[in-house]
TrEMBL record:
<dbReference type="InterPro" id="IPR003607">
    <property type="entry name" value="HD/PDEase_dom"/>
</dbReference>
<feature type="domain" description="HD">
    <location>
        <begin position="39"/>
        <end position="94"/>
    </location>
</feature>
<dbReference type="InterPro" id="IPR052567">
    <property type="entry name" value="OP_Dioxygenase"/>
</dbReference>
<protein>
    <submittedName>
        <fullName>Phosphonate degradation operons associated HDIG domain protein</fullName>
    </submittedName>
</protein>
<dbReference type="Pfam" id="PF01966">
    <property type="entry name" value="HD"/>
</dbReference>
<dbReference type="InterPro" id="IPR006674">
    <property type="entry name" value="HD_domain"/>
</dbReference>
Length: 192
């Protein structure tokens, strides 16, 4: 059995749905809401042929924004909310590492991609660039080595790609709630 606690999982899906129902309209600097962004990222993972764990990681990668208490303007106030740590830690209680670890690394993936590819850095949205600077900016060689050594680094890079694609205003996507059965299945599969 994994390190996560399946006892906590009974209410987890309901808690996730409630978070996105009550706080999913928050924007955090982007032109799309958190819910719209989540739906688009999951959609891109799905059409890319990602497995269920990565689809759910794409759906929930920014849940830390909905869990912290810093507010939508945290980056404007110079605060790195460490949303990737908050979200991955919260989800790791009942979802497998194949979901929580790419989420934990998606900020590092942005920093890595910006370091190795100047055009990636230039293509970041204003909000993503602002958070990038607060999150540490370009990686040094030691940080890049550590990132690449992590078993989930490729999943995090894929997640980052879906993250960048998930910012289209007015895109028609499958509803957030439609992913609830997939989340439940991942909880149950890892609990066995």
């Amino acid at each position: 059995m994994s390190a996560f606690d399946p006892v906590l999982s009974a209410d987890t899906v309901d808690q996730i749905l409630h978070l996105y129902a009550t706080r999913g309209d928050d924007h955090y600097g982007e032109d799309v809401s958190q819910r719209e962004h989540a739906e688009q990222c999951a959609y891109h993972a799905r059409i890319d042929g990602a497995d269920d764990a990565l689809i759910i990681a794409a759906l929930l990668h920014d849940i830390g924004h909905l869990l912290h208490k810093f507010g939508e303007d945290a980056a404007d106030r110079g605060i790195d909310t460490r949303h990737e740590r908050i979200g991955s830690g919260w989800l790791a209680r009942c979802l497998p590492p194949s979901v929580s670890e790419p989420i934990a690394l998606h900020v590092a993936a942005k920093r890595y991609l910006a370091t190795i590819n100047p055009s990636y850095l230039k293509g970041l949205s204003a909000a993503s660039l602002q958070s990038f600077l607060l999150q540490g900016g370009l990686m040094d060689a030691e940080e890049m080595t550590a990132f690449l050594a992590h078993p989930a680094h490729q999943a995090a890079l894929d997640l980052r790609r879906y993250d960048e694609l998930g910012k289209i205003v007015g895109a028609d996507m499958p509803a957030f709630d439609s992913y609830a059965p997939m989340i439940r299945a991942l909880i149950m599969k890892d609990a066995r």
